[in-house]
Amino acid sequence: MKRRIAVVYGGYSGEAVVSEKSAQMVLENIDRNKFDVTPVEITKTEWVAHIDGAKIPINRHDFSASTPEGKLTFDKVFNIIHGTPGEDGILQGYFQMVGMPHTSSEVFAMSLTFNKSANNTYLQQFGFNCAKSLVLRKTDHYSVSKIIETLGLPCFVKPNEGGSSIGISKVKEASQMVAAIELAFDENSEVIIEEFISGREVSCGVISRHGRAFAMPLTEMISFGEFFDYEAKYEGNSNEVTPADISESLTLQIQNIATEVYDILRCNGMIRIDFLLNEKGPYLIEVNTVPGFSDASIVPQQAAAAGISKKELISLLLD
Question: N or C, where is the chain less crowded by C-beta within 10 Å?
Answer without folding.
Answer: N
